[in-house]
Design brief:
globular; four-stranded antiparallel beta sheet; mainly beta; Methylamine Dehydrogenase, Chain H
């Protein structure tokens, strides 16, 4: 009996000492780290992302020749590129459809139409000097997001389209990997493996972190990290977004992962916030934002956002 009481007391002391309690979640904060006046105005038909150390501003995203402008941290235009496809009179670029590689190369995905309204889906690679261009016709595969890995390969997330939803092949792979000449190197992640098996678009994002490629799908509730050869390194749930939320996602050089979201309530019908991932606990923390804005991406270890679409602001993450 004495042995039992001693054991019980030791257990209670152990518990009260917090030795077996779960670690408390980190309090994540985002503090200001500089700002500059936005050198352009985001209106209908335009969008901006922070990629590869530069701000990429896309004009005429639904036109015969979208214009991609590249800006530095001071808001100065560094260069400009007009993207066109021979025979295409209309090119549609969607969210997460432009990637800038570490060597300055570009990857662009979207849909293109000719004079007779014939449409095709495409994946494009553009050389760093903008003198060479490779067009990959991906139909019936719809490319929803793109990134350029550290080894120069092009990764695309999407799905094969079908006129009849009941005829969709849920065994098809949703991630494809190409070289810059257009050769398909591999495909990964069967549609049927998702839970739930929703279309990955909208809200599908591909990102690059050193020797890894990250895929984030808000609608399919999936976050997956791949090695360069397509092996899965990590698989988690995405942040708890509202249904049908189209998110912006950013990964910083230190591995910090963030996802923006709309916060819909009677008090704040258009308020937005940023989810931060705690990698140790595999949990997401929502950080509400007071001002309206949008997440652009990561600039080194800082988040780049817009505020009222007039200012580019940087935020530094800190755990308290």
């Amino acid at each position: 009996m004495r042995s039992y009481i001693v054991s019980l007391l030791l257990f209670l002391l152990f518990l009260l000492g917090g030795e077996i309690a779960s670690p408390s979640p980190r309090a994540v904060a985002l503090i200001p780290a500089g700002s500059t006046e936005m050198p352009f105005k985001i209106v209908e038909g335009t969008f901006a992302v922070w990629k590869g150390g530069a701000l990429v501003f896309v004009q005429g995203r639904y036109s015969n020749a979208p214009i991609l402008g590249f800006f530095d941290r001071n808001g100065s235009r560094v260069s400009e590129f007009r993207f066109s496809i021979p025979g295409a009179t209309l090119i549609n670029l969607y969210d997460n459809s432009v990637a800038l590689g570490s060597d300055g190369s570009l990857a662009i995905v979207g849909t293109a139409y000719s004079d007779d309204s014939r449409g095709t889906m495409f994946i494009a690679w553009v050389s760093p000097d903008r003198q060479q261009q490779t067009i990959i016709r991906s139909s019936p595969f719809f490319p929803a997001a793109v990134t350029i890995a550290s080894d120069g390969t092009i990764w695309v997330a999407g799905h094969e389209t079908s006129q009849q939803p009941k005829e969709r092949d849920y065994n098809q792979h949703l991630i494809r990997r190409y070289d810059k000449t257009g050769i398909l190197l591999g495909s990964f992640i069967p549609w049927s493996s998702l839970d739930p098996p929703n279309l990955p678009y909208p809200g599908s994002v591909l990102l690059t972190l050193k020797d890894r490629v990250l895929w984030y799908s808000a609608r399919s509730r999936a976050y997956i990290e791949f090695s360069a050869d397509g092996s899965i390194i990590k698989r988690l749930k995405s942040a708890p977004h509202p249904e049908h939320d189209v998110s912006r996602v950013a990964v910083c050089d230190d591995g910090s992962l963030f996802a923006s979201t709309m916060i819909r309530s009677q008090e704040h019908p258009t308020q937005w916030g940023i989810f931060a991932l705690d990698p140790q606990r595999s949990e997401w923390t929502l950080i509400p934002r007071e001002q309206k804005g949008s997440l652009l991406g990561c600039d080194g270890t800082r988040l780049a956002i817009t505020t009222d679409y007039q200012t580019i602001s940087w935020l530094q993450s800190t755990a308290q």
